[in-house]
Amino acid sequence: MLEVHQLPGPALVELATLFIEAVRGCSLLSGKSLELFPTILTALATSKESLTYGKGELRGEELKKQLINTLCSSRWSHQYVIHLTSMFRDIPLSVEELQFVVEKVLRMFPKLDLQEIPPLVYQLLLLSAKGSKKNILEGIISFFNQVDQKQKEEQKDSESLDLEEATVPLDQLRHVEGTVILHIGLAVNLDPDLGKELLKYLKSEQQGDPGKALCPFSVTLLLSVARIHRFQEQVFDFLKTSIMKCFKDLQFIQGSKFLQDLAPLRNSISATVLEVVANSVFGWDHVTQGLVDLGFILLDSYGPKKILGGKSTEMVNGLSKTPAQQACNLGANILLEAFKVHEPIRNEILEQLLNRVITNAGSPISHFIDLLSGIISYAPLVLQNSSSKVTEAFDQLSFLPLATVQGLLKAVQPLLKISMSMRDSLILVLRKSMFSGQLDARKSAVAGFLLLLKNFKILGSLTSSSCSQAIGASQVQVDVHARYNSAANEAFCLEILGSLRRCLSQQADVRLMLYEGFYDVLRRNSQLSSSVLETLLSQIKQYYEPEPDLLPPLKLEGCILAQRDQIFLQEPLAHLLCCIHHCLTWYKNTLALRRRVEEEDEEEEEEEAGFQQELGEMLASITRRMIKSELEDFELDKSADFSQSTGVGVKNNIYAILVMGVCEVLIEYNFSTGNFSKSTSEDVLGLFKCYSSLCDILKEKGGKSKSPSANKIARSFLSMGFVSTLLTSLFRDCSQNHEESLAVLRASNEFMRFAVSVALQKVQQLEETGQTDGPDGQNQEKTFQNLCKITRVLLWRYTSIPTAAEESGKKEKGKNISLLCLEGLLRIFNTVQHRYQPKLPQFLQALDQTNEDGEEEAVDVNVTEKAAFLIRQFQRSLVNQISHAEDDFNSKEALLLISVLTSLSKLLEPSSPQYVQLLSWTVKICKETSLEDAPCCRGLLTLLFHLHTLIKSPVSILRELAQDIHAQLGDIDQDLEVEHQSHFAVVNTKTAAPTACLLVLGQAEKVLEEVDWLINKMKSHLGSEAADASQAANAAHPLEKAVILQLGTLLTSYHELVQTALPAGSCVDALLRSVSKMYTTLTSLIKYYLQACRSASGGIPGRLEKLVRLSGSHLTPPCYAFITYVQSETSIVEEKKKKKKDRMTAEVSVVMAKVLRETKPIPNLIFAIEQYENFLIHLSKKSKVNLMQYMKLSTSRDFRINVSTLENALEGQDAENEPDNNQSIASAQSSDSQEPKKKRRRKK
What region holds the FANCI helical domain (predicted)? Predict the structure, then answer.
């Protein structure tokens, strides 16, 4: 080997040929002899003489190139591939030669056995030191991606065909992938340029198609590289943005049928990343830390955020999640799945999670709490080993906000059931908090103790379905009674009750929490009823007036506390009475059941019955006396002071709210226990009279104050279950026995309106928070059942008694009941889609009038059919409303009906005939109905666009609407009459601007966004390798056609709008901006074709030429004319300003501010047009097609000279000026300005 360079040239050629023939003929005994080949080639390369090779003579370097070419072109046996790759490291190679070698090796990958891939990859990575890093990485990633795809398909086939043998054993494949990833990780560590190249390659792929860049193998590779400190931040930033882009693309495509047909998303990013977690069980320890970091990065970046008003962007179980919510959800799933399969990282996940719960207390942390709950529910026994971390978190409870404490304790509740020590440490912390100086800490203590009482059942407590409650997430059922006897549990619960009794002397907020929690405690632990009832009885006695004839029956002065000049609520009396009522009702309902279940201790039963009887008598006495009481008895008449600025006013406000609350509680109590007697109904109306008179006074006094909250109805004390029962009784109960009693209540329209208003309030609360006040408010199942009942009643009431029929009767203050019902239905339909998406079939089944009970299970309910039936009812109502005379038209009802139809249309399957039917009905309404009501017009057009985009692109409708707007508002050239047949009657002089115009522009911009997205997609096809050039061209062809068609149709819409005499204001501003976007999109398309011409020799398609011609004739000239029109409007405003300089200066300055705002987009538009023309010139040169022949020279510039203005100016000048000058300027400018006029004539 050392003497090779001394051999003569022909001998070297012969040796080299011998090696190549040996490789071709597979006659090499081992790859060892190949070590001589690089030396021979190097000697040949340095040789100065011309040597004979084949039929010609070549010099050394050329000969070496030819030999390498011959070697790479010949067939390689799979056994020599690794040796040959290793050999090429020692050969000096040019860039082209290296690329040729790398491509040859990569083509050999599929022919090799899986076990041979890791050493070959290792050799390739060593070879990458010479260059061609991108090709090597791309080849490795695409190979493993294909193998993964093949393996998945085989798995699917084997599941369907029950095949046992797979060509690629899964565990072997995963171990090979793990080894390869380790090799690449080590190589990146040694050669940072390789890491940079990897990120650069994946970023370029991500620009066009993030799904292509992020396959399971590449994600795993990135997570492995993230262990290297210098790449950590870059890798996680890339993964985060790529995941977010995938979710945004998914949302974008789901909103448009046009995009779904052209560019469907094939890969789910969530499935890809979770597949990496599943694969990591095959010994991929180098990836686990990256998975944990990625999970927490997604949770931290995209979790719910605090927004203005203190509310948070909450996570909901609905399907219509935002991309940020989906990314956050993915982060939680990564951590949960990683926790399940990787034992070593469990402690770290738990520690980081608890740290975030405690340290992020100021911001929303529901996503962390949900994840913690999921982890604990999965493996409570495993987490017993980490109990010290949970106990440390308990020490921070007194410093955390109440919502965090409640969430955390609900999440760890399964642990408390199996760990005595954890429970003890929690009780110690809660006891300390009970005596804390901080109000929040004491509230947290109450919340904690109530949760313990709800979750530790004493044996012997009722286990009926009426007493069960779902707390937090799904819980692990652990029988604690096997280890701790019931006596210990009872002692434990009574001890907690003793601690809670101390709270009854604390602030109103603490007491309020206790009253709200007692009912749930009773339902879970019926054995505690005696203690709870006794506690409530002793508490109410402090405020109850025992004298049977004394008015008022309650001592309100004891409920407030005066400190210096300020007055506070001390006892939330209405909440106390509400708690007593619910506990009493529960006790009565379960007493008979308890007697049937088992024999009770008679003494205890008698004691409880005594409490129950005494409380019942108290409530009856309070009811009787409240009805007799006048407002003056509470010192609350119309002359009383209710201002918030004085002590007396604050006191009276508190008194009024307490009395109203007491009245509501008593209404519910009497109606529930009255058994439909006439006297009970009269009592209810008497209580309501007291409530409504106070409500009116507060509204009247509050109306004078400027605070918006003053006019809002106070939060009702009626429970949702009672509201559903009351509404059903008032509107649907036809029973003879109940008729007399209900007739009393039905006679009061105000009471019925009140009942519907409270239902609305409950639904709103459910929509905003996911739960309602009162018993069972957190029980999702019962709340859902009540919601179905309420919906059924409101739907019946609205469809049976039309608004017009109701209004024809006597006019009363307040809203019409049918209108309130409709408002309620709209809220309910939105809430169900938002909160109860999985239960939609049951909801629609419950509304079916033939199924009054709604109790049957919804089996195979066709959501589309049921929703279509509902939609037809509201369509009839809307048609009736529209067909009314103008005087009878109720704008508010029509708008609500349109909103209801919009909400229900989301339940229809876009491919169903019912959906198409609704769309054609909406088009018909818009075409035939001439509504002068702007909000209704906006609603109808929004519905039309919403329905249309899920069937096909709405560009044709936009064009027709633009023509209608042009016809209604007239042309910018006042001498020109627009002859036009109306398409949509809904567009008229009242609604054309700004309503219809702004909606059309908004929709046009959405179409432009879709087109932009598609152009980026087309650019990604251009970036494909030359080998796939024909395939890439075929993929891009339908996209190109669709993009040009969209832009062409949209261009004709803009052609109409820029010739429309739009009123100065928002429409002009929006149109100028929108046309600028149109030009920007056109420029993007031209850039794409410029890039296409550079990468391929093909010319530009004829349809692009047509589009450019259309833009030159139909868009640019009218745009400049429109700019002139806008500027002339501006000068008119300026003239008016000069005339009215002395008066109304403020008003004129507002107009001028608007004008300035409108003129700002003009330079941007001119710049966009010029950029478009600039790139057209470039494309013309590149494609050898003169595209600029269609573009006329523009005349509208800041420095243009307007002929008519100039002539007027010249007439006023002295005769001394040279006439030649004037004529030359005028003639030069007139020739320039003739073009637009000619174009105008063509339009006529």
Answer: 193-279, 464-699
